[in-house]
Amino acid sequence: MNLSVASSHDQLMMRFDVEGLWHNGDALKLAYMVKAAVARVRQDHVLIDLRRVDTPPEAKGKFLICDRLRRALTPKTKVVLVATPELVDTECVSMSLAQCPDIALFGAERDALDWLSK
């Protein structure tokens, strides 16, 4: 994976701070990294900070993290992404899909934390 990921957890959530240039396949690898870490600490609230992830000049499309997280995580998981909408695949964000985790996108961390704590 081309991205650097730092993770931490507390009683409220598991946090992932991600940075670097994304390339094809990185979203799937990140989703499975999140899945493994969340299962290990038995946490179902996740914050993924993508504000330091950039699009390489040759990239086409968006970082497909929402789709990959929906496929990898359990339905009871609540995920908040802190990123710009231009970066991620926002088609599925805020849609309540049966048998899928809830995923929301925010540009500011404070708003993300408020949503996650509800």
Helical amount among residues, as a percent range? 25-40%
Find the structural class using helix and strand composition.
alpha/beta
Percent of residues in beta strands? 25-35%
Morphology:
globular
Radius of gyration: 13 Å
What is the averaged pLDDT score? Answer: 88
How would you spell out the order of helices and strands? EEHEHEEH
Tell me the total number of β-strands. 5
Termini, distance in Å? 33 Å
Which regions contain 5 or more consecutive residues with pLDDT less than 50?
none
- Quaternary: single chain
Number of helices: 3
Characterize the biggest β-sheet. 5 strands, mixed
How are the SSEs ordered, and which strands pair?
Blueprint (H helix, E strand, L loop, with lengths): L3 E6 L4 E8 L4 H16 L3 E10 L10 H8 L5 E5 L19 E5 L2 H9 L1
Parallel strand pairs: 2-3, 3-4, 4-5
Antiparallel strand pairs: 1-2
Short note summarizing the structure:
With 118 residues, the protein is α/β, with parallel strands linked by helices.
Characterize the structure shown:
This protein has 118 residues and is α/β, with parallel strands linked by helices. It is 28% helix and 29% strand. The protein has helices at 26-41, 65-72, 109-117, and strands at residues 4-9, 14-21, 45-54, 78-82, 102-106. Strands 1-2-3-4-5 form a five-stranded mixed β-sheet, sandwiched between helices. The longest helix has 16 residues, at 26-41. The protein is globular and about 40 Å long. The protein starts with a strand and ends with a helix.
